[in-house]
Design a protein that fits this description.
7-stranded mixed sheet, 5-stranded mixed sheet, 18% strand, Cytochrome Bc1 Complex, Chain A, domain 1
Length: 440
């Protein structure tokens, strides 16, 4: 196979990774890092958002079935060969993406990387394994349904998204999983698990050229099996499936309130949320990230100091800016006695209103911007961290620019820019409220 070097014209404190495009359409991102390990992380811009309602949960179910063997590997053989070298493997499915990774010793990378590519590109999805794994997935759904935190989070998504598929659970509902067939899964796999949808990120203590060459040879090694299973070469004669397009939802026009009762809780849960931009409007998210830290990250954050440390109205409180690809949610959350619900919601909105009227003091802004920027930098110090960082942003934006500009964008924010963001997106008289009360 031939490959094309894609220049990355960014000068940064991080080592600049090399980006190669393989002839089969796969993007390879590689970086040498002086740590005695190598991580290969395979990202697909394919999550539950590409599903229709009648196959909701398919992407996650397929994540399980990927490890059930190929024409070359018996079921369970992949994990055995990984474990006998002391390597580790895992995977995760989200609304927007799915990714699979292995972390190996550098000397084992050339032997184990081809196995990872094989299980992704050539999953057999046998009927007997499909039925066994269905029960595993159904049990995972039952455990999720029994988890109070996940139930509360799902209530928030139900209110936050009226039409976007982010309101659907990634695991899917039991009624759908019970009806899925292995032939449907094979169709889904063949449609979406194409090299053109994959970003292979390899970071560790091997030369960049060797990391890229190993991934490229791995694709060549298994191309014959893919041709037999898919009916054509992975080199690209199949058309590239298009992800569905979505339009972000309008902000709340009034206060929309939903209340629930959860007998497993000891204290109430309160969530106040606004619809805000997602990754597709990345420039708009930086200020919202900082505002969430000002309000609710760390002991010195405004809501924490006021409502927990000084007034003692809550046992826990925080803020987060959740950024999906097509939309985001800015959320204030609290755990508190039922009798404090009204007072805490009022106080939350007062703090938001203050962001509209009062400029954030320079000293507070500088401290928080340093915190946000350093959290980003410090969270990307290992090969595994880097592969997650590069893979996520490339899968979501087709670029690594956000990796290298995030910290500087945050540090450059002014009090006026944060005030403008609060005025634009965090309306004090139009937002969503989810209340979950304990009780029978």
């Amino acid at each position: 196979m031939t490959s094309i070097l894609v220049r990355t014209p960014i000068v940064t404190p991080l080592n600049v990774p090399t980006i190669h495009r393989l002839a089969n359409g796969m993007t390879v991102i590689a970086e040498q890092m002086p740590v005695d390990a190598v991580t290969l992380n395979l990202w697909l811009n394919v999550g539950s958002i590409v599903e229709s309602d009648d196959i909701n949960g398919m992407a996650h179910f397929l994540e399980h079935m990927i490890f059930k063997g190929t024409e070359q590997l018996a079921s369970g053989e992949f994990e055995c060969r990984i474990e006998e070298r002391g390597a580790v493997t895992n995977a995760a499915t989200s609304h927007d993406y799915t990714h699979y990774y292995i972390t190996t010793a550098p000397q084992d990378f050339a032997d184990l990387a081809p196995l990872q590519l094989d299980v992704l590109l050539n999953a057999a999805i046998p009927n007997d394994g499909f039925e066994r794994e269905r029960q595993v997935v159904l049990e995972e759904i039952r455990r999720s349904d029994d988890n109070a935190r996940r139930r509360t989070y799902q209530h928030m998504l139900d209110l936050g998204f009226s039409t976007l598929p982010y309101r659907r659970p990634v695991l899917g509902p039991t009624s759908v999983i019970e009806q899925l067939t292995s032939s449907q899964m094979l169709d889904f796999h063949r449609h979406w698990y194409q090299p053109q949808h994959m970003t292979a990120v390899a970071v560790g203590n091997l030369p960049v050229e060797e990391l890229i060459r190993t991934v490229e040879r791995s694709c060549e090694q298994w191309s014959g099996a893919t041709e037999r299973s898919a009916g054509q070469s992975i080199g690209g004669s199949r058309s590239i499936p298009k992800r569905p397009t979505f339009v972000g939802e309008q902000p709340f026009q009034q206060i929309v309130r939903k209340e629930f009762v959860d007998p497993t809780l000891q204290q109430a849960r309160l969530m106040v949320l606004w619809r805000v931009p997602g990754v597709e409007e990345l420039e708009e998210t930086y200020a919202l990230d900082v505002l969430s830290n000002i309000l609710g990250h760390g002991r010195t954050a405004r809501l924490v100091q006021d409502l927990r440390e000084q007034r003692g109205l809550v046992s826990g409180i925080g803020a987060t800016n959740i950024t999906y690809q097509h939309q985001g949610l800015f959320c204030l959350t609290a755990q508190l006695p039922v009798e404090c619900l009204e007072a805490v919601e009022t106080a939350m909105i007062e703090h938001v209103h203050r962001l509209h009227t009062d400029l954030i003091p320079a000293a507070e802004l500088e401290k928080v911007c340093i915190q946000v920027a350093n959290q980003f930098v410090f969270g990307n110090e290992t090969p595994s961290d880097r592969t997650n960082l590069y893979g996520y942003y490339y899968a979501m934006t087709d670029s690594l620019d956000p990796v290298f500009t995030y910290a500087d964008r945050v540090r450059s924010l002014t009090p006026q820019a944060l005030q403008a963001a609060a005025q634009k997106y965090l309306t004090p008289n139009a937002y969503g409220v989810v209340v979950v009360k304990p009780g029978a």
